[in-house]
Specification:
The structure holds two protein chains of two kinds. By secondary structure, chain A is of the alpha+beta class. Chain A is built from 37 helices and 35 strands. Chain B is elongated, with a radius of gyration of 16 Å. The two termini of chain B are 20 Å apart. Classes of the chains: A alpha+beta, B mainly alpha.
Chain lengths: 1039, 74
């Protein structure tokens, strides 16, 4: 009980103190001196204090009461309370407040009048005390009435019932508590909220600060370039609407997805309410409006939390049919619309601000240079300039005042505050100089209307240009999203049905015709075609698809038609996962950004501190020491001879505020990371985070797994050496016939080798495997023996003539098998793993980049060294057990190397994790891809080179951006603070400061967009890769 | 309603408290400025005091708000 009244009483006491101060001021006005004031005050100060405190306690209690009313859903009259304690109405808050004001207003009025109008007359003060006591008593009584929630007899109030529901025109604001009553506090969930209107790093800090203040939020990370907030929260404690409100409160708009559904099967109003209830209770749904007559439902939802399919499923589960109206805009379109809205808004303000600002500027400088000849004199009249500037400040410039006020309400100082103080101060000085020219701000000669006008115009220009260019940074994501087809042709029974692609379910049969995009991932059942996968994997040539092959959603079918079975849909498709991976990378923060974040986060605070310090210095010290009547504003013919000490110090103080630009510092890293990861995605390289980009740019050593990474990972016939009088084809035919039933990898390689050479493989009449040695078979009427040297020796086959070439092949790391027919040697076959195309070229390019290349393998040293020789790798770590691969990487790191590990298999996962950058190749296992920091979509090792090049280019851009941002602020802030003034007698005008500020952030944005022109060195080279050389067989196979 | 962790105090109230406290400090700073600037004219003296009040309040808000919030959470 005491706890709940402590706050109103504290507020009351504080208010009482303030009223005493006011009282003191009133007394001071009526007295001749401070001594007399004190004397008067001491006469009856305690009574005044008591009355004032009582008055304030009433206000505090009223605030408390208002909150109780809001919580309990309405006013409870005494009659209703007597009848059983139920809430009698759910009238609006306005009505609640009026009701209670009517109850206590006379008391407040009387006591207030007692204090203010009669000052220190004892009897009236005593009357004031009495009325206050009465007022407090009444208020306490009403509070007690409302202290308990309104619960009907036998009724249990659900946990969510205290949350506000608003019913407006058939739509309800859904409670959107995760999982409804099933959700318990303590669980965490993550959502992505798109935000419109952010322009710089301080906006990020503002939004993060506002959302973090929402009770139940565990973590929040805002990505400026993506325009999204990633929020982890406890669904039992908060809801989507709370974030949206907090974000809107600080001046930004929340992008919300809208789903328009055609609903059939509704017959009455209860259908409407049941659908609204079911959909409204889904997590992430912010509003739902069902129209019975039109048979439609419009759902406002957050796509980061709930999907369209889940919403439709919720309706279908109730027994209705719901289908999406195909003309509904996609998420990409909405994102573009939101950005377009911002561009339009700022563009409209520019149309207002710039013409007026130019007029103001021309008018201000009417008497300068040749302007008097062309500009009428009246344009320079201060009153006209006032009339022209006021609409700019209170039109286009008003957004900064509103946003900074909202920010301050949440305890956040942002860029809007810098703009608002700058514009406000310049405008105020101009107004004072117009209407009170003798006030000491430079007089009528120094009206700064053009400063306020151009300052506003430049800031809006900056925002307009940023809104235009910022969207381009996320072009990669938009390109990927645009690959997602909207419609799929599904086979239902004998009919083809066109349905929205996001309604395709696993196991659906889908038909794809030439020229169509494949809607989801799947497995081809029949048909044949070539599919262009370049947009996802970067492969330039179309890939042939036939029965049994996998197809990827979003790729383009080129030539034929085929049917396939959907295996992955919705968020599970490769395209959706790629988009998520790229988005995740773009939202993550690189280590280099920590410094920028630290600077940008505290920047505005320190700029205000500096501005205050600068003001105090120039006010008390600088003006007296250095001021000269020849003072000019930089790049203007303005002289400020008549400016007083306050005007002078204020101008410098404002210039410091305006010229400072944390936007450039804050944007430097994320904008470049976004462009860099997007550029990498265009080449089929997926960075999982900005830290991977930074780490990849610093690599000094690279470790390749051999089998499956540098080599194909499966044996192939590389050499066939027939005995004299026998040809190669006969050797292979006999050997293949002997091995056709074998499941041994070497046997399979021989059969595949024969078939690849167009040799018909016969089935043997008899077959016997001799474990560890080879096979014995009866084929083509001959007894065939295929195996190693020991098998030949045991069966008495004389192979002396073949020993020399066999040893040569073994020296090259190949596995040699001898072939004998009817007890006589007929030849030998060399089998080896083969290098992947481009492996040699990739290693060569990595050497040219200055990296130390190491090969890591579990194979024997001889084989490993043979492979390394072919690849040009000097450092080989052979016979390494899978569990020791990570140790080898660690050893390299201990030698101060920044190591990347490239691998594809499960046994590479620990090494991938240990490395500074783990690169998993796309053809590898899911575990490797899960563990790696970078995923190479194509099975092309040259992408390792491209990865490093992109990372280096991105980090170069980051460093350039940071350099310019820091240099800009380091140079301009001291100049604006008047460091050069003692020598130059020139000051930075607010409009020049605004211009420089706008240019600085624009420089960073434009510099980042240059990354779009980045082309990897491989693409720049015209000559084709030496594929033939890379295909050379090199390695033996462990049997 | 947004609540501060632990104490159940509405977050907006924390902000209001921070604002009030900041305003009081800023008022003190402005008064100190006005006293120090007693040798200057009234425009410079009171105008300066207003500017000092505004800047001080702006500086203090982001300091006081998290401090109060942490204090309440503790």
């Amino acid at each position: 009980m005491i706890e709940q009244y402590r706050r109103p009483i504290a507020v009351g006491l504080l208010g009482g103190l303030a009223l005493i101060g006011l009282y003191l001021a009133v007394v001071r006005i009526g007295s001749a001196s401070w001594a007399h004031t004190v004397e008067l005050f001491l006469t009856d100060w305690y009574l005044v204090a008591a009355v004032a405190t009582g008055f304030s306690i009433q206000i505090g209690l009223f605030t408390h009461l208002r909150r109780l009313i809001r919580q309990n859903g309405g006013v409870r009259s005494a009659t209703a309370m007597a009848a059983g304690g139920t809430a009698t109405s759910t009238t609006s808050m306005v009505a609640c407040c009026l009701h209670h004001l009517a109850e206590v207003l006379p008391v407040i009025g009387l006591s207030g009048a007692a204090v203010f109008f009669t000052t220190y007359k004892m009897p009236i003060i005593l009357f004031g005390l009495a009325t206050n006591a009465l007022g407090i008593g009444m208020m306490l009584r009403t509070i007690r009435r409302h202290a308990k929630p309104a619960v009907r007899a036998g009724e249990t109030r659900p946990q969510t019932a205290a949350l506000p529901h608003t019913t407006e025109g058939g739509s309800i604001m859904a409670p959107a508590i995760q999982g409804g009553s099933d959700v318990r506090p303590g669980t965490s969930t993550e959502t992505v909220v798109p935000i419109v209107g952010m322009s710089c790093a301080s906006c990020v800090a503002t939004v993060e600060g506002a959302v973090r203040n929402v009770h139940g939020v565990r973590d929040v990370s805002v990505n400026l370039a993506a325009g999204k907030a990633y929020i982890t929260y406890d669904p039992g404690l908060t809801r989507l609407g709370d974030f949206e409100r907090a974000i809107r409160d600080v001046g930004y708009e929340v992008g919300r997805d809208t789903l328009q559904l055609q609903v059939t099967g509704m017959s009455c109003a209860s259908c409407v309410s049941s659908i609204e209830g079911a959909v409204g209770n889904l997590p992430g749904v912010a509003s739902v409006a069902v129209n019975l007559n039109a048979g439609t439902a419009v759902v406002g939802y957050n796509a980061g939390t709930v999907t369209a399919s889940q919403i439709k499923k919720a309706i279908r589960d109730l027994g209705y049919e719901a289908s999406e109206r195909l003309e509904g805009a996609s998420a990409m379109d909405r994102e573009r619309e939101a950005r377009q809205l911002e561009v339009t808004r700022q563009g409209r303000w520019m149309l207002v601000a710039w013409p007026l600002a130019m007029l103001v500027m021309v008018g201000t400088f009417q008497d300068v240079w040749i302007l008097p000849r062309y500009v009428p004199q009246f344009l320079g009249y201060p009153l006209l300039l006032f009339a022209l500037t006021t609409p700019i400040v209170f039109g286009p410039g008003w957004q900064f005042f509103v946003n900074s006020y909202r920010g301050l309400r949440h305890g956040v100082a942002d860029m809007n505050l810098l703009y608002a103080t700058g514009i406000g101060a310049a405008y105020l000085i101009a107004v004072i100089n117009t209407f009170w020219p003798e006030a000491g701000f430079g007089g009528p000669e120094a009206v700064f209307y053009e400063a306020a006008a151009l300052l506003t115009a430049f800031i809006i220009l900056g925002r307009y240009l940023e809104a235009l260019t910022r969207g381009r940074a996320s072009e990669a994501i938009r390109k990927l999203m645009s690959l997602q087809p909207k419609v799929a042709r599904v086979i239902r029974g004998d009919a083809e049905v066109e349905i929205p692609a996001d309604e395709v379910e696993v196991e659906d049969l889908i038909l794809v015709r030439p020229g169509e995009r494949i809607p989801v991932d799947g497995l081809v059942l029949d048909g044949y075609s070539a599919v262009d996968q370049s947009m996802l994997t970067g492969e330039s040539m179309p890939v042939e698809k036939r029965a049994g092959d996998e197809v990827i959603g979003g790729t383009m079918n080129k030539t034929g038609a085929f049917r396939f079975r959907a295996t992955r849909v919705g968020r599970e498709t490769a395209l959706a996962q790629i988009i998520k991976l790229v988005e995740d990378a773009q939202v993550s923060k690189a280590p280099i950004q920590r410094l920028a974040d630290l600077v940008a986060g505290k920047f505005i605070f320190w700029v205000h501190v500096l501005s205050l310090g600068v003001f105090l210095f120039w006010f008390f010290v600088g003006y007296g020491l250095f001021f000269s009547p020849e003072t000019r504003l930089m790049l203007t013919p303005y002289t400020l001879a008549g400016v007083g000490v306050f005007g002078f110090a204020l101008l410098i103080s404002v210039a410091v505020l305006v010229i400072s630009c944390p936007c450039a510092v804050g944007m430097a890293t994320p904008s470049a990371m976004m462009a860099g990861t997007g550029k990498a995605a265009e080449h089929g390289i997926l960075f999982k985070g900005a830290d991977a980009v930074e780490a990849a740019s610093k690599l000094t050593a690279i470790v390749f797994d051999k089998t499956g990474t540098l080599t194909r990972g499966e044996p192939a016939v590389t050499d066939v050496l027939p005995a004299p009088g026998i040809n190669e084809a006969d050797v292979l035919r006999l050997a293949a016939a002997a091995e056709v039933n074998s499941e041994h990898p070497l046997g399979e390689a021989i059969v595949r080798g024969a078939r690849d050479r167009g040799i018909r493989v016969e089935s043997p009449e008899a077959f016997e495997a001799i474990p560890g040695h080879g096979v014995l078979a009866q084929a083509s009427g001959r007894q065939v023996l295929l195996g190693n040297r020991r098998l030949m020796a045991e069966r008495g086959v004389a192979i002396q003539g073949m020993i020399a070439p066999a040893e040569r092949l073994e020296g090259e790391g190949k596995t040699v098998m001898f072939l004998a027919a009817d007890g006589r040697p007929v030849g030998l076959i060399g089998v080896a793993d083969t290098l992947k195309p481009h492996s040699v070229e990739a290693v060569r390019l990595l050497h040219t980049l200055g990296l130390e290349v190491t090969m890591l393998t579990g194979d024997n040293r001889r084989t490993a060294e043979a492979v390394a020789r072919q690849l040009g790798i000097n450092r080989v770590l052979a016979e390494v057990l899978p569990q020791d691969k990570a140790t080898e990487v660690k050893a390299l790191q201990a030698r101060s190397h920044r190591v990347a590990m490239v691998g594809d298999g499960i046994n590479d996962a620990p090494a991938l994790a240990q490395a500074d950058v783990g690169m998993a190749i796309g053809s590898g296992t899911d575990i490797a891809k899960e563990t790696g920091h970078v995923v190479l979509m194509k099975d092309d090792l040259r992408d390792v080179v491209t990865t490093i090049e992109v990372a280096r280019a991105t980090m170069r851009k980051v460093k350039q951006n940071l350099f310019w941002a820091f240099i800009y602020n380091t140079v301009t802030i001291p100049v604006a603070a008047g460091l050069l003034y003692p020598w130059t007698r020139q000051m930075v005008s607010p409009e020049l400061a605004a211009f420089l500020m706008a240019i600085s952030s624009l420089t960073v944005t434009m510099n980042t967009t240059l990354l779009k022109r980045f082309v990897p060195s491989l693409r720049r080279q015209s000559e084709p890769a030496a594929v033939g050389a890379a295909m050379a067989p090199v390695a033996g196979v462990q049997s | 309603m947004e609540l501060d962790e632990g104490r159940g105090v509405p977050a907006t109230q924390t902000m209001r408290h921070a604002g009030t406290l900041g305003a009081l400090f800023a008022l003190g700073a402005a008064a100190a400025f006005a006293l120090a600037a007693s040798g200057f004219g009234p425009v410079a003296r009171y105008g300066g005091a207003v500017w000092v009040f505004i800047l001080t309040w702006i500086i203090l808000m982001p300091v006081l708000a998290p401090w109060l919030k942490e204090r309440r959470a503790a």
